[in-house]
Amino acid sequence: MDKDKIITLLNKDLEDEHGAIIQYLSHAYAIGEGEMACEIEAIAREEMRHLDWLAEAIVELGGTPSLGRGKMLMEGKSVAEWMENGVSLEEGAVAQYKEHIKLTQDPKIKRLLRRILSDEEAHHGQFEHFVEKVRQEGTKDLRGTRQDRMAQILNWGIEHEYTVILQYLLQSYMTTDEEAKKQLQDQAINEMQHLGWLAEKMVDGGGSPRIEHTEVDRSTTTGDMLRVDIKTEQEATVAYDRAARETEDSDLKKLLLRIRDHEIYHAEVFSDLLKDEEPPD
Ligand SMILES: [Fe+2]
Ligand SMILES: [Fe+2]
Ligand SMILES: [Fe+2]
Question: What pLDDT is recorded for position 195?
Answer without folding.
Answer: 98
